[in-house]
Amino acid sequence: MTLLTKQSKKQISLKQKVANGALAGILLTSLGVAAPMIAMTQSATAAPADNLIAAKRLNTLLTNTKSMTANFTQTTKGANSGTFSGSMSVQRPNSFRWETKSPSEQLIIANGSSMWVYDKDLEQATKQNVDSQVGNTPALLLSGDPSKIDQSFKITQPYDNKNYYVLYPKSDNASFKSLSMSFSGGKPVMMVLNDTLGQTTSIKFSSIKMNPSISSSQFKFTPPKGVDVINQ
After folding, report:
1. Which residues neighbour 60 within 8 Å (Cβ) at sequence distance 6 or greater?
2. How far apart are CA 217 and CA 191, in angstroms?
3. Residue 230 domain flag
């Protein structure tokens, strides 16, 4: 087994921090969306749903997701290519936990008003103020207010009979181009994001548990002693 040096771990951590960009805080600057692979398997002649109908359907799916836990595999292709895996938890309103475990450790916790990004290898924790509007944080789509999604996004459903949605930000200042979500059995199983730098990030969920009871401690963070804290 090849052991990672401290320097290589830092390089992985920095790459990971960029790759996670669309998911939270530091992630706010880098994620958008492309059509996930599931879209390629559908008939080209399938009719798209009306935008209003698509918005209502997505709202219903997200409203039914009051909490969720899952494992994830996140793959980014582009200037900061890499694959990371870990676990996540979300709970409405506006609570979000994203923990990367391999190949390096990073923890992201959002609780509505603030977001922490803790990088164990870099011994650094960054705190940011977070706007609870989903238009500013695509990662909070699963934990924000579903009724406000259409205020920030144009919502499309390319295939009327498939629970696959592509969202386009209405703001000209958005850092991403689009965000797509695929559902199976009412569960969100995949998100694909394309950022304005041409990178594509695919996130696949597994071992999904819908609406479990999650301790509030999962969405709290206290920087370990000796860690550098950066306020942004």
Report:
1. none
2. 26
3. no
Cβ atoms of 207 and 71 closer than 8 Å = yes
Whether 231 maps to a domain, the answer reads: no
Domain assignment present for 2? no
Q: Residue 195 sits in which domain range?
A: 15-213
pTM of the model: 0.77
Query: How many domains is the chain built from?
Result: 1
**How many Cα atoms sit within 13 Å of 169 on the Cβ side?**
24
CA 38 to CA 40: how far, in whole Å? Answer: 5
- The Cα–Cα gap between 78 and 219 comes to 31
Tokens of 99: 């923990």
Beta bridge partners of 69: 89, 209
Task: Name residue, tokens 């109908």.
Answer: 53
pLDDT, tens digit, 9 for 90 and up, residues 5-31: 555 555 555 555 544 544 442 232 222
In this predicted model, what pLDDT tens digit does every residue of 23-78 receive, in sequence order?
A: 442 232 222 222 233 333 344 446 788 888 998 898 888 888 889 999 999 998 98
The CATH number covering residue 165 comes to 2.50.20.10
Picking from 128, 196, 159, the residue whose alpha carbon sits closest to that of residue 57 is 159
